[in-house]
Amino acid sequence: MNVKENVLEGLRSIKSNALRTVLTSAIITFGIMALVGILTAIESMQGAINKSFEGMGVNSFDLISKNDFSARRSGRAEKVTKPISFREAMDYKERFSESENAIISVYTMVGGAEVIKYQNEKSNPNNSIIAADENYIGLKGYKILEGRNLTETDRSYGSKVTVLGYDVAEKFFPGGKSLGQDIFILGDRFTIVGVLQKKGSMTGGNDDRMALIPLEVGRNADTDGRFAYTITTSVPNAEDIDEVMAEGTAIMRLVRQDRTTDPDSFEVERADALLGEFNEVTGYMRIGGFGISFITLLGASIALMNIMMVTVTERTREIGIRKALGATPAKIRFQFLMEAVVICLLGGIAGVILGISAGNLVSYLMSSGEGSFTAPWNWIIMGLVVCVVVGLLSGYYPAYKASKMDPIESLRYE
């Protein structure tokens, strides 16, 4: 009996015990669905994350204020680090621009939960107001949907203009035509000069619920000098990033007047640090998904072995007839092994289809539509290989037991 005949025989056996086979295949289906589904969702979300970061590149870093709090050690109060001020940020920008061919952006968070008004309409108090210079949009990976960017002239003259995030513009102007309209931000009237393309929130921020205003205009709202300014530095060659970061740190220490024996009074963050952390988390998620699938498939293999043992017992007389007609023990083993593999592959194929569908659906919902359709072929192939291995391992003992049956005793079996 060749492979084709064994496969057909396996399908006939499956058809004769349809309910029992479906229940076993379902366990295998859910195991493969868990494996493929989790990994598909991870791959799809990671693609969206990479897309969000590709505009920022890996050739930039941020200088930010330390987020420390007053504490006491050994009865002595720890020194609280002052935030980076506007003058320090501009001093750094001037000094660094003289020594390197770099693009530098200075910005600060004016408000993180602000209400924006247009005529009689109000937004929810969940908008970020960022005061930035003309380099902010390019360095942070935003793109202009319509209108223009903030300019150096806007900063110099303190023009009350704004560039809105996509969601803010859509709330007040769903049909477009937002340019030139006046809205109220922080109680002041601002003219809309631009709207950003939708970016999504894969990086964890309110990228589409924000309003950009000129840096100097935002500075005017800093009445008590507590605003913390962030400096983003981007260089043309990503290979020089470590060297440039070291130079930027040295310049900032000089600007902040840090003593040689003191640690940095600020923090340095690379643009790709968050991406690296996410990749590390997704690695653990892959391991977890594989572990869940392994446990499910282990249960499926035990159930499959039980079914194959029952099948061997039910078909004892058939085995005796085959042996009486000249079937060798090897052919008997091969026949039952093929039946087990066919059952696993049927469940595996169904699991792959459901896994891809469920994984992409989860990714689409979690990424607010930013995740693209993904089919992780490497994991799909591995899943089907695992199905074959499970079928061979689960079916070997029942097949071995069938091959060792005595044909005379088998023919007497009722």
TrEMBL record:
Residues 21-247 form the MacB-like periplasmic core domain. One of its GO terms (cellular component) is plasma membrane. Pfam families: FtsX, MacB_PCD. The chain crosses the membrane at residues 21-42, 287-313, 334-357, 377-397. Residues 292-407 form the ABC3 transporter permease C-terminal domain. Its main location: membrane. This is ABC3 transporter permease protein domain-containing protein. Keywords: Cell membrane, Membrane, Transmembrane, Transmembrane helix. Belongs to the ABC-4 integral membrane protein family. The lineage of its organism: Bacteria, Pseudomonadati, Bacteroidota, Cytophagia, Cytophagales. GO terms for molecular function: transmembrane transporter activity. It is found in: Cell membrane. It is a multi-pass membrane protein. It comes from the Bacteria. The keyword Protease does not apply. It comes from Leadbetterella byssophila (strain DSM 17132 / JCM 16389 / KACC 11308 / NBRC 106382 / 4M15).
